[in-house]
Amino acid sequence: MQCRKTWKNTFAHLFYFALINNLIDYERALNKLTLKFIYNAQKINHAITKIIITLILRTNVTQMKSFRIQKGVLTTEKDLLRHPFF
């Protein structure tokens, strides 16, 4: 189980690095496989949370009605910018 968590953290950090350095296309990053990976993570850690926020901000998908991150629900761009990562 610990090995699996480490793999998820490593993937999340690499994915976030690729996002912030424009190495991957944001539109393509928001495909079902990426979201499926994020939703299936047993515990949403900080790196994965950063990925979700980055994807939303970079692709202007702020009109989503609700987006669950950790225990709260972030609904607007203002809510996203109030998140501890910003």
Task: Provide a short characterization of the protein structure.
By secondary structure, the chain is mostly helical. It has 5 helices and 2 strands. It is globular.
Report on the architecture of this protein.
There is one protein chain. This protein has 86 residues and is mostly helical. The protein has one domain. It is built from five helices and two strands. It has a two-stranded antiparallel sheet. The longest helix is centred in the first third of the chain and has 19 residues. It is globular. The termini are far apart. About 17% of the residues have low confidence.
Write the layout of secondary structure elements.
Elements: H1 2-20, H2 26-29, H3 32-40, H4 46-59, E1 67-69, E2 72-74, H5 77-81
Antiparallel strand pairs: 1-2
Helix pairs in contact: 1-4
